[in-house]
Design brief:
With 263 residues, this protein is α/β, with parallel strands linked by helices. The chain contains nine helices and eight strands. The structure holds zinc ion (ZN). Zinc ion (ZN) binds next to helix 8.
Amino acid sequence: MSYGQNFHEFARYERQMGYASWGIAGQEKLKTARVGLVGCGGLGAAVALHLVRAGVGFLRVIDDDRVSLSNLHRQILYVEKDVANRCYKTRVAAERLLEANSGAVVEPLVGRLTVDTVESFMHGLDLVVDGSDNFAARFLLNRAAVRFRMPWVYGGVGGASGMTMTIVPGEGPCLRCVLSEAENSTDPLRDYGSAVVNSVVTIIAALQSTEVYKLLIDPASRNRDLLAVDVWDMSFCKMMVERDPICPVCSGLPGAEVGTHEG
Ligand SMILES: [Zn+2]
């Protein structure tokens, strides 16, 4: 791509390409990137908008849900007519995303991430973003990401709290290194039920989107901690996390020896 020959494209992205760590080279990396998004609810809708507006060239989105009234307070891609029409989220999301940036390719999949679908979902992608609402899907994604050595960005919200972590298999802890898979004890946000403050969704989605940009443009600058946010307490807590040398998921990858803290 030559921005000298494509003024329209240059003008669209000039305000972010002007950021020194981004540049024209970064923009070109986004344009050729292929990103997957698991879930198109609160986190997923906001992440999708960020990525497509920023110029990520290809986005594959999987979700089996239809838009409902209780989604509208936080799921910023959807409007009231989508509830009335019982629209599938991924289909209406693809339409809205292309209205925002017709240069993107958005592949909407109506379905769930399962042991049967995860491999085809991840095929040909560079990385995946977690916009799911449950840890079964996240641990499934984590196992597949380790298997395919594919980076992914965990995100979760509950109440006024949220968490995010960037996982690069073999170069730091996987989700299983940090959280137990045993029953509900795995879910740090479980106490909130289905309640969620919409502003924390926006914050976690923005942080996840930023991690995607960094993984694509300058992977060394990615976040290496588990970040916990509470917008009601206005607290931001970064917790250093390390690989579990006996992790049942990722200990077979290089660099898992005891005492190794990779980055
Ligand atoms: Zn692990």
